[in-house]
Design goal:
Elements (H helix, E strand, L loop, with lengths): L2 E9 L2 E9 L4 E5 L5 H10 L3 E6 L5 H4 L2 H8 L3 E4 H4 L9 E4 L5 E3 L2 E7 L8 E5 L2 E5 L17 H14 L5 E4 L9 E2 H7 L8 H8 L12
Parallel strand pairs: 3-4, 4-5, 5-6, 10-11
Antiparallel strand pairs: 1-2, 2-3, 7-8, 8-9, 9-10, 11-12
Bound molecules: fe (ii) ion.
Length: 221
């Protein structure tokens, strides 16, 4: 049985969702730890988790800000895609690179990395049991913007279509940000409420993703 703790973290205009996931034995993993050191450490402490890995979904600072710190604090490796590393400023001897979708076995926790480029070239989503940590690839109500130098709306379209094909409907979705819906909705809910998953023509998707006059990048809650 796996449990997920949602940790909402902020810094000025940034609002992010970091996560801890753990099993019955208290072996835990942090996903995208950022901004609020005390909040993250005390959450882990409260339930006495033994943190064994830090997973990073992509290189943007609001997802990597405390990766190095928590990695050193818990003496745990940081996993990031090789593509994302070249654009990140993480500098740690505990860095581990993900190049493909070979499952990671950390203690008894099995993690399935899914290469989901588009928001950036190095975006990874992590499927852990029935929980998908989707970073900025997939939000409950949308998907990441394609404004980075390594962004590709073509790749994002393919990544999202692939998630539609392979993710079971009961999987809970934990993104890096949210607008109005709570994180942790089942994928069936996301399919019914996310327009980006319902545009099946690539050209239409790219036009819509790249349209003018979109809301601000940091318009999260
Ligand atoms: Fe991002």
């Amino acid at each position: 049985m796996y449990k997920v703790i949602v940790i909402r973290v902020c810094d000025k205009e940034f609002i992010n969702y970091s996560y801890a996931i753990y099993n019955d034995e208290g072996t835990g993993i942090l996903v995208d730890p950022a901004w609020e050191t005390e909040k993250i450490l005390s959450t882990v402490d409260e339930i006495q988790l033994d943190i064994k890995a830090i997973l990073v979904t992509h290189e943007h600072i609001d997802h990597t800000n405390l990766a190095e710190y928590t990695s050193a604090y818990y003496d745990a490796p940081i996993y990031i895609s090789a593509e994302a590393k070249q654009f990140s400023n993480i500098n740690s001897k505990r860095l581990m690179f993900i190049n493909d979708e070979t499952p990671l076995l950390i203690d008894k926790l099995t993690i399935k990395p899914l290469l989901t480029p588009g928001h950036t070239k190095g975006c990874i989503s992590y499927l852990i049991n029935e929980n998908l940590f989707s970073g900025d690839t997939l939000f409950i109500e949308g998907c990441g913007m394609c404004t980075d130098s390594s962004s590709s709306p073509h790749e994002l379209f393919n990544s999202l279509r692939r998630l539609v094909d392979i993710i079971p409907l009961s999987t809970k979705i934990y993104p890096g940000h949210r607008y109005h819906a709570e994180v942790g909705q089942e994928f069936s809910y996301v399919l019914n409420n996310n327009i980006y998953l319902n545009i099946t023509n690539e050209e239409d998707f790219i036009k819509f993703r790249m349209r003018n006059g979109q809301k601000g990048l940091m318009d999260f809650i």
